[in-house]
Design goal:
2 domains; three-stranded antiparallel beta sheet; wza like fold; 193 residues; Outer membrane lipoprotein wza fold like; alpha+beta; five-stranded mixed beta sheet; 5 helices
Length: 193
């Protein structure tokens, strides 16, 4: 094969690779958002009621080792537990150690956030107020800039998993292509070339 033949073959290969990159891929398995799960870095508001001196609206941060340091109990594991499960464990800990004969424990999450960056008009951290999607999150940040690459929006999950989403497809068919956003997720909109 001649030098020109190699260049032609290489050009065809690059064109074929670019063409397949423009096709719409079927969405991956939907990411399951766990709103009711405690995570490292969460702020928890804990109330201890039905005791002689109630502890009301005391805030605790889940430390990097996944524990919370509670009065009279010390460190107790909280990471990856449901709120109701954690409430029962705290209550059982106080009763089993005979600190209180009866106690009611109420645990609520503090503010949780997701972030949107890159080519949006007002990038930043947003308060997670409940179920939302990537398109809604981008709109709350002022929508795309004119330089945004809407076909390769990256979602970085709180657990480190990464997804690439085509927002053009998501606007055409949101039930199929728009992704759910969870607390701790980050959305990055790259610049188009």
């Amino acid at each position: 094969m001649t030098w020109k033949g190699w260049i032609s073959a290489l050009g065809l290969f690059i064109a074929a690779a670019a063409w397949t990159g423009c096709q719409t891929a079927e969405p991956a398995q939907p990411y399951v958002c766990t709103d009711d799960e405690i995570r490292i870095g969460d702020t928890l508001t804990i109330n201890l009621l039905d005791i002689p001196e109630p502890m009301i609206d005391k805030q605790f941060v889940v430390r990097s080792d996944g524990t919370v340091n509670l009065p009279y109990l010390g460190s107790i594991k909280a990471d990856k537990k449901k709120f109701g499960e954690f409430e029962r464990e705290v209550k059982d800990g106080y009763i089993e150690r005979k600190i209180f004969r009866q106690v009611t424990v109420v645990v609520k999450p503090g503010d949780r956030f997701y972030s949107v960056g890159g080519e949006v008009k007002a990038p930043g951290r947003q308060i997670y107020t409940g179920q939302t999607t990537a398109l809604r999150a981008i709109v709350t940040c002022g929508d795309f800039t004119e330089f945004a690459n809407r076909r390769k929006v990256e979602i970085i999950r709180a657990n480190g998993a990464r997804e690439v989403m085509n927002c053009n497809d998501a606007r055409e068919n949101p039930t199929k292509y728009d992704r759910q956003i969870c607390p701790g997720d980050a959305i990055f909109v790259p610049r188009s070339l």
